[in-house]
């Protein structure tokens, strides 16, 4: 099937739209954009220049965890905005009003909730769930198998990991869980499998090696508690 | 008005030049470059492949600070070099001889001084002032509302922040101020609002939580002074 | 000479292939790809969208170390995979089965061994040697003049440096040496000139300021030893 394109779609130059793509009404598409097979784009979406939507994952011999090949199409929810140079994979979805910055890439099987902001140059790995009204600032790295609940704030250049044994094999990986309302300072480091509880605050540059309690503030390397907010 | 293009301009394939663009003499433009409405490009500029020049900022419902919409055109000063895959916004300017690396993005209302080097994969936020002969190495993050004076050296992968309360609202943000000749080691973390004085040295991996004096060297998390150079 | 293109090559739209390029059989080339003068691409290579292959280095007045201009063509070994938005320079080579992620850039005079994985958004500087079966995860920074031996694992967002005096001049630079089988945790910081010996383990967020012994594990800022594995 050829692509199905809505009304009032503004299309830049040298745009490539593959088969089975569905594009809603009032969509703006920048120059040199590539929309790959089957991608669904809602109404009122704005797409920057040189964006790739709906990429399929690839692999090589050394990769222990092979990417899934049966993936549903990428869904770009209505009124979302995609920055220039972004690369979004098949099998993921953005809810209504989400924002994705320039040069950001989101792998397969990621869900991003309503009105969330994924800043510029952010890399999100596969199988990660990001809630609504979340902010992930510029340059942060969101590992695979991670859960980020609603209203979380992640400052710039934060790093996370899901692989305790660093490439030793194909055992179960576990990314951090960041619970509702927690805030992570810039360039913080999160180790695999930890939970950062509701409304906790992680200081800039902290290296978080164990769970952080509700309302707790931690700083340093390794991160230690400095105070606890009253429960609200 | 259609674009005004100087003499001896080498233009790659599939280049898009929007209206009111002005391009000087002896300019080289790579393949798939997009030069957006009104952008001014001086003489002897070299532009890599897949570059976007003059992007307008975008926003979503969740963003507390809305970007300015009345912005003067992007100015790319004479003899500047722009790497492949870079995304530069409207409302900013590069002085003569500036260098911008591949996959780097510079937001609106940024000024970059003469002969400064902004390396590959550097993200510069809006409203930031970068002096002359500054080096910002690969992968560093320059937050909004920051001042970087002349002859500063910022190593690779440094991070800065301007938002003490991490997304709590639309109060005044303040990025770090880095004064003339200071040097920042790789992967250092700078907190909001601090001043790093003239010729100070920040060690690699340091987390700088308070002001650093002239000629002082600091290291660690949190960063502490280890020595002070004689004033020169 | 015009490009020489093998059998069964799938070519996307708006692809630019410059003179003297050689492309093997069964190669897949995405949309908007730029293959620059002289690049050699082996059989069974897969190239994503918006990739630049064979870029020549550029410079400005302020750069102390001028890039070499006499460079052999980029060699993309057979069965390699290149992600979307990647920028690879002339003078480098990928061995058989190597994997390069999206939005990654590799400078000139870099060699990458068989089956190695260079993740998304990784920046590799010039004159660096990466062995076989190495993993460099998303967002890591590999400085110039670095040696990474076989079977090394580098987690996400690691940073390295080769310039002890931070831009003071054109003296000899020395990147870290990471020996066979060592593992580096996420967001670790490596200082110039250090050696990380065989099978050492660097904890997440560690700041490594001196050599690390064989089988040693180090953590913290500055990194200190916490245990030593039995030699195997």
Automatic annotation (TrEMBL), chains A, B, C:
Keyword Transferase on entry: yes
SUPFAM superfamilies linked to this entry: Trimeric LpxA-like enzymes
Pfam families the UniProt entry points to: Hexapep
Keywords, ordered alphabetically: Acyltransferase, Repeat, Transferase
InterPro entries linked to this entry: Hexapep (IPR001451), Hexapep_transf_CS (IPR018357), Trans_hexapeptide_repeat (IPR050179), Trimer_LpxA-like_sf (IPR011004)
Keyword Acyltransferase listed: yes
GO molecular function: acyltransferase activity
PANTHER family reported in the protein's UniProt record: ACETYLTRANSFERASE, ACYL-[ACYL-CARRIER-PROTEIN]--UDP-N-ACETYLGLUCOSAMINE O-ACYLTRANSFERASE
Entry protein name: N-acetyltransferase
Organism annotation: Anaerobacillus isosaccharinicus
């Amino acid at each position: 099937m050829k692509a199905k394109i809505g009304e009032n779609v503004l299309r830049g130059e040298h745009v490539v739209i593959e088969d089975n793509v569905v594009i809603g009404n009032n969509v703006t598409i920048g120059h040199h954009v590539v929309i790959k097979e089957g991608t669904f784009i809602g109404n009122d979406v704005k797409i920057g220049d040189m964006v790739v939507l709906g990429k399929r994952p690839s692999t090589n011999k050394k990769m222990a965890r092979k990417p899934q090949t049966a993936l549903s199409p990428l869904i770009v929810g209505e009124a979302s905005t995609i920055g220039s140079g972004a690369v979004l994979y098949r099998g993921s979805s953005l809810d209504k009003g989400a924002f994705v910055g320039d040069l950001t890439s989101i792998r397969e099987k990621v869900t991003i909730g309503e009105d969330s902001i994924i800043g510029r140059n952010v890399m999100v790995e596969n199988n990660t769930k990001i809630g609504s009204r979340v902010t992930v600032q510029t340059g942060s790295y969101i590992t695979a198998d991670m859960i980020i609940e609603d209203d979380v704030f992640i400052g710039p250049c934060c790093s996370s990991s899901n692989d305790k044994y660093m490439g030793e094999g194909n055992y179960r990986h576990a990314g951090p869980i960041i619970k509702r309302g927690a805030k992570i300072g810039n360039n913080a480091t999160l180790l695999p499998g930890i939970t950062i509880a509701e409304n906790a605050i992680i200081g800039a540059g902290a290296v978080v090696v164990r769970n952080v309690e509700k309302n707790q503030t931690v700083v340093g390397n390794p991160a230690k508690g400095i105070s606890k907010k009253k429960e609200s």
